[in-house]
């Protein structure tokens, strides 16, 4: 049967009208589904980028605030930025966020230096250097300098902001820097991996803020000094960026000299620090008296330990001198054949006292006097300096506008346990760690590169004698006028002493200004 032309036209128009009604009724549903799909995709994108879920969602957006530094030479307006830098894996996914705080002078002149600073551990955040040394605020520990229960934040007249812009960085696993997962974190916990991640973060900051033409310096404390050398090499090799100089503060340079208690050379390099601590306890410290101890350490003491055990009058003279210099009872020195690296903590401070390797002049009551070996928490590292963590979190929230929902990890011991040293994990492997070759290479291939190493006299953990040995054994053509050692009263964190912090800031300023005029 065939439809007439009119019947077909009527039927066709009715079908079109019905379809239009269906489309009109379904359009809101389709639009809602489209919006839902877009929203889901956006939520997924935000989750991946740290804005909608996972650990990254607890890290707030960058915050930039305006401030004025009251420098002795006059007011210096600056901006402070507390924020993060993103690191990505080969798959294009975000693998970590690195927290940093930048202090940048406004209206700065051309050539103003830019200093990147980090602490050590491994596993320490930058709050130590931040609130202890270089930042515009300083944390005070009461009248005695060791009361962490009521710390007070105040302006820091010795802030390095007076002569350099500052970027303080927390490596992954410290502060508010986090990896995407626990498995991903392991990829950052190692000498090489850590150096590469920090060199990437530095390169990203320089590019993002257009600071390629600024002289770039690295400041590292303790393991951070070792780290600075590794980062400088990584910057050069993987980022095409050359460091102008490094300041190492109480650094580990050679692992073989770190608490190697049965090695004659290590013992000889540590002895002057123990002698400095004893002089401090007696209120008799002078550079001249310490110089006498230094000569004995590298002379008769080293020879006596390296050769056959002395006997008779020679033994009596040697061990008596060690006892006199350190305050360790002579019978203990005799029993250890002069190797006092394992006994000084329990023996130097007097009966019922224990001293800290971070400052052998600092003694507190021994929590375990009945034990022959050290069991105490360290009275400095695990005592009053722990206050840096909570103080920085409060400062970031109240003054920098960075209010994170995560706690600030000042010292992450898990990072330290998982650290990979030269292809293996564990504290014993650090004895193989070395930054001397990196220092030599940097001095050789960057003609304007300079190095300053700073120590506290009574630091028995990373003694100044070890760094002096490293510098003294650099080729003269590399070291002359370009590598220097500075030593100050105090221990590993000598900057907690106002007089030492002031002297150090003046010496560092001269270091920068000398560099700028080369």
Please describe what this structure looks like.
The protein is of the alpha/beta class and 518 residues long. The chain folds into three domains: 5-49; 63-256 and 386-516, Rossmann fold, CATH 3.40.50; 260-340, no CATH class. The chain is 42% helix and 18% strand. It is built from 16 helices and 16 strands. The strands form four sheets. Strands 1, 2, 3, 4, 7, 8, 9, 10, 15 and 16 form a ten-stranded mixed beta sheet that branches. α4 (191-208) packs across α5 (223-239), α6 (264-281) packs antiparallel against α7 and α6 (264-281) packs across α14 (464-472). It is globular and about 70 Å long. The N and C termini lie far apart (103 Å). 44% of the residues are buried. The model is unreliable at 1-52 (pLDDT under 50).
Any chance you could write out the topology, listing elements then pairs?
Layout: H1 5-49, E1 63-71, E2 74-88, E3 94-105, E4 114-118, H2 127-134, E5 137-140, E6 152-155, E7 165-169, E8 178-179, H3 182-186, H4 191-208, E9 216-221, H5 223-239, E10 245-249, H6 264-281, H7 287-306, H8 312-326, H9 330-335, H10 344-347, E11 353-356, E12 359-365, H11 387-398, H12 413-418, E13 420-421, E14 424-425, H13 436-445, E15 450-456, H14 464-472, H15 476-479, E16 483-488, H16 498-516
Parallel strand pairs: 4-7, 4-9, 9-10, 10-15, 15-16
Antiparallel strand pairs: 1-2, 2-3, 3-7, 3-8, 5-6, 11-12, 13-14
């Amino acid at each position: 049967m065939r439809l007439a032309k009119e019947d077909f036209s009527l039927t066709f128009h009715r079908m079109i009208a019905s379809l239009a009604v269906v489309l009109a009724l379904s359009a809101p549903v389709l639009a809602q589904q489209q919006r839902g799909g877009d929203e889901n995709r956006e939520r997924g994108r935000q989750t991946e980028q740290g804005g909608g879920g996972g650990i990254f969602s607890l890290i707030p957006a960058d915050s930039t605030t305006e401030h004025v530094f009251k420098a002795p030479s006059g007011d210096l307006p600056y901006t402070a930025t507390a924020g993060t830098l993103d690191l990505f894996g080969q798959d294009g996914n975000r693998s970590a966020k690195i927290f940093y705080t930048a202090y940048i002078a406004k209206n700065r002149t051309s050539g103003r230096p830019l200093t990147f600073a980090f602490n050590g551990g491994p596993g320490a955040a930058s709050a130590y250097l931040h609130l202890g040394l270089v930042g515009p605020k300083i944390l005070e520990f009461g009248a005695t300098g060791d009361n962490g229960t009521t710390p007070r934040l105040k302006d820091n007249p010795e802030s390095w902001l007076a002569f350099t812009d500052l970027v303080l960085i927390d490596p992954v696993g410290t502060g508010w820097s986090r990896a995407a997962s626990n498995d991903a974190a392991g990829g950052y916990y190692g000498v090489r991996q850590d150096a590469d991640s920090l060199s990437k973060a530095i390169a990203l900051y320089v590019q993002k803020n257009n600071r390629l033409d600024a002289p770039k310096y690295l400041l590292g404390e303790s393991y951070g000094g070792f780290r600075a050398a590794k980062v400088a090499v990584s910057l050069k090799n993987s980022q095409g960026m050359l460091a102008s100089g490094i300041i190492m503060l109480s650094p580990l340079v050679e692992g073989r000299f770190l608490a190697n208690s049965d090695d004659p050379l290590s013992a000889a390099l540590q002895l002057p620090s123990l002698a400095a601590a004893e002089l401090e306890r007696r209120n008799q410290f002078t550079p001249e008296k310490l110089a006498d101890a230094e000569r004995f350490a590298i002379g008769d003491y080293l020879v006596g330990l390296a050769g056959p055990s002395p006997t008779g009058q020679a033994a009596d003279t040697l061990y008596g001198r060690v006892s006199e210099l350190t305050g360790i009872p002579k019978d203990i020195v005799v029993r250890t054949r002069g190797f006092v690296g394992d006994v000084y903590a329990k023996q130097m401070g007097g009966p019922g006292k224990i001293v800290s390797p971070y400052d052998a002049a600092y003694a507190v009551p021994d929590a375990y006097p009945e034990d022959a070996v050290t069991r105490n928490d360290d009275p400095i590292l695990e005592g009053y300096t722990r206050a840096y963590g909570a103080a920085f979190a409060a400062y970031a929230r109240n003054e920098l506008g960075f209010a994170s929902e995560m706690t600030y990890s000042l010292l992450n011991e898990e990072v330290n346990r998982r650290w990979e040293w030269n292809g293996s994990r564990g504290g014993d492997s650090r004895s193989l760690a070395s930054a001397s070759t990196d220092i030599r290479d940097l001095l050789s291939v960057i003609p304007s590169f300079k190095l300053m190493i700073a120590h506290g006299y009574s630091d028995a953990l990373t003694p100044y004698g070890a760094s002096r040995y490293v510098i003294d054994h650099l080729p003269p053509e590399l070291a002359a006028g370009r590598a220097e050692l500075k030593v100050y009263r105090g221990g590993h964190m000598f900057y907690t002493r106002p007089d030492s912090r002031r002297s150090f800031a003046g010496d560092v300023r001269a270091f920068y200004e000398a560099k700028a005029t080369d």
